[in-house]
Amino acid sequence: MKRRNQTIILVFGALLTLAVLRVTNILIPFEDLIRSGLAPLGKTATSLGTSLSAVFNQDLPAKECNEALVDSESRLAGVSVDYVRLRALEEENEVLRKSLGYLQKQGYDAVMARVISRSAVPNKAVVMIDRGSKDGLEVGMAAIVNDGILVGKITKIQERTAIVTLFSDPDSKVAISKAGERKLIGLVEGRGNWASEATLIPQQESLEKNDVLVTSGTEEKIPPNLIVGLVNQVIGQPTDPFKKAAIEALVPLEYLEVVAVLRPQALRPN
Amino acid sequence: MRRSSWVIVILSAVLAGIYESGFIGSAPPIFVYIRPVVPICVLFLLLDKRSAAYAMAVISGFIIDLMSATSAGFVTGRWLLALLIVDLLASRVTTNRSLYASMALVVVARLLDRILWQILSWFGTYVLNGVYYLEPWYRLLGVFVFDVIFTTLVFISITLFTKRFVISVNAYKGRYE
Q1: Of A28, A129, B148, B163, which one is least surrounded by beta carbons within 10 A?
Q2: How many Å from the N-terminal Cα to the C-terminal Cα in chain B?
Q3: For B27, which DSSP code?
Q4: Rounded CA separation A117/A162 (Å)
Q5: What is Dmax (Cα atoms) for chain B?
Q6: Where are the beta strands (DSSP E) in chain B?
Q7: SS3 for A147?
Q8: If you average pLDDT over residues B111-126, what whole number do you get?
Q9: How many CB pairs under 8 A join A and B?
Q10: Helix B37-46 vs helix B75-92: angle between axes, to the nearest 10 degrees?
């Protein structure tokens, strides 16, 4: 009986101490240290889970695979035409810039980070990365992959780790414009289950399937022209004040293992 | 407990914590139902390894609290409290060490954990103005199924290979010990 009372007192004591230490944020430096110590294990576990997930998801029925292939081929044809046109424009732009003696400065550099944990809550698309405020990262910065495809924004920061909310998360909102037009046309909002939608697009804006949507550059720490996704389907009646569009991500957000966070060069730690 | 046993308990707790915080979120969906920490802690209690049970709950819970990408909801506290209540139930209500008692205690522990999570979520949302995500009840059903299967398998293995759960009758006292 005496031992049982001892256990009860010990458990309640531990609970109270932990609760007080966490609420008062005294444990934060200690927690951050443990987090960075456990990061390699977290990376391994996440990477293992992602590989396993990729293997499981390969078993698509043949019919679905064929449909996806036909769809991708038609898109590729459309995108190839755009690519050739844009390439020509890019070359022309480069010549013009050089002739003007204009030095292109993006003003951003990329901090590579590994995903060490992923949310298991259904619908939430949130990952933890192994870089934090010590690396010059701040809340609101963009996380990208493949040199320019936006995957999310930093929403919470610690000294050695940060939380990235992917753009398919229901709490995420990203200001967008159409590729090639630096004009804000709406927002991309997450819908959960790796889906997202472009919303608040005025009816007069022309938007078609396969249009490329990019960041508008109106958000403080997110540069313009980062690719957000392709328009999959335009939704809405002509009488509605705004239209919506289903967005298809260009990278599978559920398999992210490495991201680059765009940091303004001014914030680079010395 | 011996020092080597403690090392095993601590290592398993760390790995289980990493599994529940890092692996489950990225693995195929079936893995969200496979959560071994709670049943293992309850089985430790039934084997009379109280300190190992509480240590495992604290270490794994603390790692989940730290490493979860979304707010996990003070797992350390929830598990400690749930385990304490299960400990009291094990000594006062389900006093025998049968398979059914083990299953019942594991299910009660999981249920208590979910109820505490719900309370914390209300408290966190309305008092602390935080954002807390609750696991849907339908998912808990799958977790219960795994818990019961896991407990059955471990319980049977223990009874087959050890004498931990064998009831002995003291010849002098003439009653169960």
Answers
A1: B163
A2: 21
A3: S
A4: 11
A5: 62
A6: 169-170, 175-176
A7: coil
A8: 86
A9: 109
A10: 30
The pLDDT tens digits of the residues spanning A215-245 come to: 988 888 888 888 898 898 888 888 888 889 9
**What number of other Cβ atoms are within 10 A of residue A5's Cβ?**
9
Place of tokens 């046993």: B5
The residue among A71, A59, A210, A190 whose CA lies nearest residue A119 is A190
Interface membership of B66 toward A (CB under 8 Å): yes
The answer to whether B22 touches A41, Cβ cutoff 8 Å, is yes
CB atoms within 10 A of CB A69: 10
Amino acid at B49: K
Phi-psi region of A140 (alpha: psi -120 to 50; beta: other; left: phi over 0): left
Nearest Cα to A113, choosing from A259, A265, A269, A256? A259
Rounded CA-CA distance A161/A78 in Å is: 40
Residue B131, sorted as left (phi over 0), alpha (psi -120 to 50) or beta, turns out to be: beta
Which of A6, A17, A38, A258 to mutate to test binding with chain B, by most B CBs within 10 Å of its CB?
A: A38
Q: A3, A8, A9, A18: which to substitute to probe chain B, counting the most B Cβ within 10 Å?
A: A18
Taking only the tens of pLDDT, chain A with its 270 residues reads 567 778 788 888 888 888 788 778 888 888 888 988 999 999 999 989 988 888 877 656 677 777 777 777 777 767 766 776 787 777 767 666 655 543 344 567 888 999 999 988 878 899 999 999 999 899 999 999 876 889 999 999 988 899 999 999 998 999 998 887 878 889 999 988 888 999 998 888 888 888 889 998 888 888 888 889 889 888 888 888 888 999 988 888 888 888 999 887 655 565
Nearest residue, CB atoms, B24 vs list A22, A120, A128 = A120
SS3 state of residue B21: helix
In 3D space, the residue among B96, B106, B92, B89 whose CA is nearest the CA of residue B153 turns out to be B106
B window 93-132, beta carbon within 8 A of A: none
CA distance linking residue A217 with residue A135, whole number of Å: 23
Q: Return d(Cα A75, Cα A64) in angstroms, integer.
A: 16
Instruction: Calculate ∠ Cα A126-A132-A133, nearest 5°.
Output: 130
Q: Which two tokens stand for residue B66?
A: 């730290």
Per CB-CB distance under 8 Å, the chain B contacts of A125 are: none
- CA of A127, closest CA in chain B: separation in Å? 5
- Residues of chain B in contact with residue A15, where contact means CB-CB under 8 angstroms, are 77, 80-81
